[in-house]
Design goal:
The chain is mostly beta strands. Helix content is 14%, strand content 39%. Strands 2, 4, 5, 9, 10, 11, 12, 15, 16 and 26 form a 10-stranded mixed sheet that branches. It has a 6-stranded antiparallel sheet with strand order 3-6-7-14-25-17, with no helix packed on it. Strands 18, 19, 21, 22, 23 and 24 form a 6-stranded mixed sheet that branches. The termini are far apart.
């Protein structure tokens, strides 16, 4: 048994859940055409409101020499030709590459992505209705790859909106949406009543990782040789110590040290509190008690950082699976949009929103009860169409006849909101005289600590 003064090695609590899932093969891309750019716009930066609002992606790893035809679980299809990639210096790459594909098709995903849903045309800011966005990247190890000259990737994505849409590429370096040549685009409606769910897809364990606990001076700590550490997502476990759930239980649990047990198993009880159930057996005798993994000082800090990263990946995977389940449940006749791209990055099927009766104001957005803070980016959620557009400080356009909620994520992660119908007409008239208006968003008491949570908050706003 080790005492509190025992030296221990840092415990790495890393629950290895990938937010990117490998999926199937053999997807056909219909009506593919290459586009060219015709128009550039003024700058709208990509501003992610919180590092916690990561969006889960889908991925596939393949040999670059063979290329790949990928049928993702969401219904998207991507075709990559052989020898399609070069490194950042333009040198051809060989061996395995990983293609990551993220679809951005709902308000929570749009906000989490930080992508602007507005565009400047001829010096005027216009607002965009998306028919589906996606981000596509390729990596070898940690290095981002580029498409080789003369190569193109065919992409087909599902859209909830039919009709006429333009196509844009996001120039992140300059904060600009670049409109693509419409005459060379093609969108086709196809019957798509099923979503691919290949048996080859890698199964990801979605158990919540166990949160490490810091040792206190009063803790009674001891070693355990546990038979199933690998199922807990705990690495370097031989250097980890344990303590009972309650120090008052030490005397009652002396039996644990009185025998040489044949089996010792741990199962998670309350991952957020690091609480586990210990079960030991010898012959026909079985006994149980609750325990917690514990660490000291810097070891605890390192383990906590790894836990936070693992927790974020866990949330991303849960969100990805929920979105996939919703997609399967709603699957019917689907409008698919097909295109060929020559660069990796972000793309958007979009059209300009027509607002003939819109109120245009020069607005300063602030938080109610917060003296100095102002919101750099505001998202306008149309509760009738479930669409979101972006406002940067100084411009604000809305229609009073529509059920619209302004939303911002404060530095603390708290969501603040304002219903546009509550803006008084006399304030609008006064704003036009003065040339500006201050609008105060009220903190809601709800925190967007994940894209999944933000989606739940948005659903509440839409029906509220």
């Amino acid at each position: 048994m080790k005492t509190l003064t025992s030296s221990i090695i840092a415990l790495a609590l890393l629950f290895s859940i990938s937010a990117c899932q490998k999926n199937g093969e053999n997807a056909d891309i219909n009506s593919k055409k290459v586009f060219s750019s015709i128009q550039k716009t003024e700058k709208f930066e990509r501003i992610k409101p919180s590092s916690q609002l990561a969006i889960g992606c889908q991925s596939n790893t393949f040999a670059v020499e063979k290329g790949a035809e990928i049928n993702f679980e969401s219904g998207a299809k991507v075709k990559v030709p052989a020898n399609a990639f070069v490194d950042q210096n333009g040198n051809p790459v060989s061996g395995s590459v990983t293609l990551e594909f993220t679809e951005i098709n709902d308000p929570a995903a749009v906000i989490a992505s930080g992508l602007p849903m507005c565009i400047a045309i001829n010096g005027k800011t216009e607002y965009m209705q998306s028919g589906g966005m996606f981000e596509i990247n390729a990596k070898q190890g940690n290095e981002l790859l580029k498409l080789a000259n003369g190569k193109q990737i065919d992409v087909q994505t599902k859209s909830s909106k039919e009709g006429d849409f333009n196509f844009y590429e996001y120039d992140q370096a300059n904060g600009k949406w670049v409109e693509q040549n419409k005459s060379e685009l093609n969108a086709v409606a196809v019957q798509n009543t099923t979503v691919a769910t290949t048996d080859k897809a890698k199964t990801i364990d979605t158990k919540m990782p166990i949160k490490p606990q810091k040792v206190s001076k009063s803790d009674f700590v001891f070693d355990l040789k546990v038979d199933n550490f690998e199922t807990l997502g705990i690495s370097d476990a031989g250097n980890m110590l344990w303590t009972f759930e309650n120090n008052k239980e030490v005397e009652a649990n002396k039996w644990l040290f009185a025998e040489k047990w044949e089996t010792v198993f741990i199962t998670s009880v309350d991952p957020e509190k690091g609480l586990c159930q210990l079960e030991v057996s010898k012959g026909s005798t079985k006994k149980q008690t609750n325990v917690k993994p514990v660490l000291f000082g810097k070891d605890y800090a390192a383990a906590l950082a790894q836990y936070n990263a693992a927790q974020q990946k866990y949330k991303q995977e849960i969100l990805r699976r929920e979105q996939s389940a919703e997609l399967k449940a709603s699957q019917n006749t689907t409008f698919m949009r097909a295109v060929s791209i020559r660069n990796m990055g972000v793309y958007n099927w979009d059209r300009i929103i027509k607002q003939p009766d819109a109120v245009v104001l020069n607005a300063i957005f602030k938080y109610e009860g917060v003296q100095t803070a102002s919101a750099p980016v505001i998202y306008s959620l149309n509760c009738e169409t479930n669409e979101v557009i972006t406002f940067y400080g100084g411009n604000f356009v809305f229609q009073r006849s529509q059920n619209t909620v302004l939303l911002s994520i404060m530095p603390t992660g708290e969501v603040a909101t304002l219903k546009t119908k509550t803006i008084k007409l006399e304030d609008i008239y006064l704003a036009r005289e003065k040339g500006k208006i201050e609008l105060f968003l009220k903190p809601s008491g709800q925190y967007a600590d994940s894209a999944e949570k933000l989606g739940s908050i948005i659903k509440t706003l839409s029906v509220g």
